[in-house]
Amino acid sequence: MSSDELRAARLEKVNQLKQLGFNPYAYKWDVTHHAAELQEKYADLANGEEVEIEVAIAGRVMNRRVFGKLAFFTLQDETGVIQLYLDKKKIQESMAETDSDAFEHLKQLTDAGDILGVKGSIRRTEKGELSVYVAEYAVLTKSLLPLPDKWHGLTDVEKRYRQRYVDLIVNPEVRETFRRRALITAAIRRYLNQQGFIEIETPVLMTEAGGAEARPFITYHNTLEMELYLRIATELHLKRLIVGGFEKVFEMGRIFRNEGISTRHNPEFTTIELYQAYADYDDMMALTEAIIVYAAQEVLGTLKITYQGQDVDLTPPWRRVTMHDLVQEKTGIDFTQFDTVNAAKAAAATAGIDAKDCESVGHVLNEAFEQKVEETLIQPTFVIDYPVEISPLAKPHRSKPGLVERFELFMVGRETANSFSELTDPIDQRERFELQAARKAAGDLEAPGVDEDFLTALEYGMPPTGGMGMGIDRLVMLLTDSASIRDVIAFPLLKPEV
Q1: How far apart, in whole angstroms, are the C-alpha atoms of residue 354 and residue 358?
Q2: What is the mean pLDDT of each run of 10 residues along the chain (498 residues)?
Q3: Are 64 and 112 spatial neighbours (Cβ–Cβ below 8 Å)?
Q4: CATH class of 170-318+379-487
Q5: Domain assignments of the chain as residue spans, ordered by start
Q6: What are the start-end ranges of the E strands in 342-434?
Q7: Which fold has domain 3-147?
Q8: 314: closest CA among 334, 329, 299, 325?
């Protein structure tokens, strides 16, 4: 049968259920137990043994096997699966008052994909399958569309992302990924709360996109008759809170960047940003390490994990090394010796580094790092002390001219966190904003403008502050062994089907 014919046949069953006086789209079912709970509680029940206890469960029928006066369904709820043992005699006796042909209706009017509620006792079959020995059942939701073929599953990756609801039904490991994601984010919040941080929500709609270099999404407010931007970072508003007197703040939330899509990038993603008064980037390194270690221990129970076939050891302390030293290790070039960008470009070219569009020695160094070093950093590594040219919101390094107190955390070859000793000098900050604004005026779509209100806040005085931003999606990818960011975002953005 074609999909249209299958749907039509199921619609007819909906009508038949209604004619029999049953609602194929019920209002509720009182659930007393879940599949995993029953599997665990009665794990030692002997073959052929029955426990005279009434349980009520509900879930989706994943498989049906009907043999005359017996039927065996596989029922799946959020926690797992359990078999339904359906015996005509028992069901007819129990449901005689409400449906004298209950077993026949079960055979004829239910399909794989339907959501059933059942009541019965617990029994392990002679073949060893723990089952609910069903006395009563009800069709709670009649499914109109068939599930993917049980032998081949939902293997079309694009369709899995487009129809995540089907992906979740037929692939238990996908449900487990999102369950772990929820546990990871809860663990992070719990740890920060224990450390005295409070979470405060900041605006998604902004009059000036700032806090990062990224192309924003632009929208329009009709009443105010003004363009607004979806936030590209939560940084500048969280810092306003530090100015206002809070000492430990954070926000975990959605960020929007009008950029490309890849296995590592989605235009809408989740970050956590946190700021601590009277702290610096060394304190942030310790905190970042502690957050990830805590989440891994809480959710996985281990610090030794495998990601896409690579062993990763999260046991602290993690390596701390400067960007200059890492680049020199991989290329043999010491970029501290160059005073001009042309000299740095020439040296980079000898190592096969494309730096022709770079504006400064710092930009050349960063290109060398991204092209030659980044993907080699498999174990957790804090890359520290970045060029000032690529770090507009970081404090100048207290002992290394031309650098700032900044780190990025790399694991499995990709950046997971970014941190600064935050810039608190309003005059220096204005100069850096104006340099960015000049690039924006020259056509750089990722360069932000000048946020005058934030500069006003800084002029009231911000205490010494350490800040850190972490990509939640990338951390979840690591801790769930997921190859693509789309595997850890429930509903990733996709181009519409033609």
Answers
A1: 9
A2: 92 97 97 98 96 96 96 97 97 94 96 97 96 98 88 70 93 95 98 98 94 92 96 96 98 95 90 98 98 98 98 98 97 95 96 94 96 97 95 89 96 96 94 88 88 96 97 97 96 87
A3: yes
A4: alpha beta
A5: 3-147, 170-318+379-487
A6: 381-387, 403-411, 414-421
A7: OB fold (Dihydrolipoamide Acetyltransferase, E2P) (2.40.50)
A8: 299
